[in-house]
Design brief:
AB_hydrolase_1, AB_hydrolase_sf, two-stranded antiparallel sheet, Rossmann fold, alpha/beta, AB_hydrolase_fold, AB hydrolase-1 domain-containing protein
Length: about 325
């Protein structure tokens, strides 16, 4: 199972899924270029198409043969669609299950993130330029962020990430991931979301059991986006979680875990709401003990046995990936 995270995040977003799915699948997590532990590259390479090529390189290195289950959240789901567009035969021949979690196949320019008389569309137009300008003065940005109340920052993260009461530690954990992503990386990727249009690429999944998962309180990829994916894949199972925002896997991990446990089983239902047993619950205690959400050391930081391969062409960009159980080459590179 190869899991791809979303915009401004990193592989730690799959914290609960790693704990739950370990032993059920051989798991491969990776950081998108410029995110998490992956290195940065030239700004013109920060595209969804390049992320699709990076995913192909991760698959070729960490899972070169055998059946695949592919999971993508938000921008990670868009990356999976780019991968399918570039290598449709790989999807048809090797993928036995897929999951699109809180993501979109297109029409992102129509999302009004702010919801005030179309002001969100202004953000679509001006946001990348503003972030690019800010990226030229990182010390000023850091100083300003220290001056701004951390409470304001966490309030914004809570508003756009979650739709139900969650522990403050979970909000801080999410905010820390976003804050760790370089602002120039965020700025370079932003314009690509409005251009993203991969509805036709979904045809590669026509004969693949697919799960489409979305929260009814998702402000970043609203319900109509998961409905569009489900419409393109009539045999997919479309699950709408009540009182759930964009960070489904952290907000309601038990529900997401159960759906991801067997994504390769035949799908017969569409727009199926979760049953009583799938009611939203607080995150289960992490079996890893003192872990990410307790402020401990991330289990992903264990790099023993992890190798890196450098791209022979400049500029160099290293994509970090981690596989459980360990394989001979769990990390791959890509330009």
């Amino acid at each position: 199972m190869v899991l791809s995270h979303g915009f401004g995040l990193n592989m730690d977003i799959w914290h609960y899924q790693r704990a739950f799915l370990r032993g059920r699948y051989r798991l491969v997590f990776w950081d998108l270029r410029g995110h998490g532990r992956s290195s940065t590259g030239p700004s013109d390479h920060y595209t969804l198409g390049q992320c699709g090529a990076d995913l192909a390189a991760v698959v070729a290195t960490c899972a070169p043969e055998g059946p695949l289950v592919i999971v993508g959240h938000s921008m990670g789901g868009m990356t999976v669609m780019e991968f399918a567009d570039q290598q449709p035969d790989t999807i048809r021949e090797r993928v036995v299950g897929g999951a699109f979690v809180a993501t979109s196949s297109g029409q992102m320019a129509s999302v009004d993130w702010i919801g005030l008389l179309g002001l969100g569309r202004v953000v679509h137009k001006l946001g990348p330029g503003v972030l690019t300008a800010l990226s030229r003065a990182p010390s000023y940005v850091d100083r300003t962020r220290r001056m701004v109340s951390s409470d304001l920052e966490t309030r914004l993260v809570r508003h756009y990430s979650y739709a139900s009461p969650v522990p403050s530690s979970l909000v801080r954990f999410t905010a820390a991931m976003i804050a760790s992503t370089p602002i120039d990386v965020l700025a370079a990727f932003l314009p690509g979301f409005d251009l993203h249009d991969k509805g036709t690429a979904l045809k590669a999944f026509a004969d693949v059991p697919v799960l489409v998962l979305n929260g009814d309180g998702d402000l970043l990829t609203p319900l109509e986006h998961s409905e569009a994916i489900a419409a393109a894949l009539p045999e997919a199972e479309h699950v709408l979680l009540p009182r759930a925002g964009h960070m489904l896997m952290l907000e309601h991990p038990d529900v997401v875990n159960l759906h991801l446990a067997e994504p390769a089983r035949p799908r017969a239902r569409r727009d199926a709401p979760p049953g009583p047993s799938a009611a939203p619950r607080s995150p289960s205690p992490c079996p890893l003990g003192r872990g990410l959400l307790a402020g401990g050391r991330s289990p992903y930081d264990d790099r023993r046995g992890v190798g890196r391969a450098w791209c022979p062409r400049a500029p160099r960009c290293t994509i970090w990936a981690r596989a459980w159980p360990r394989c001979c080459a769990p990390v791959t590179w890509c330009c």
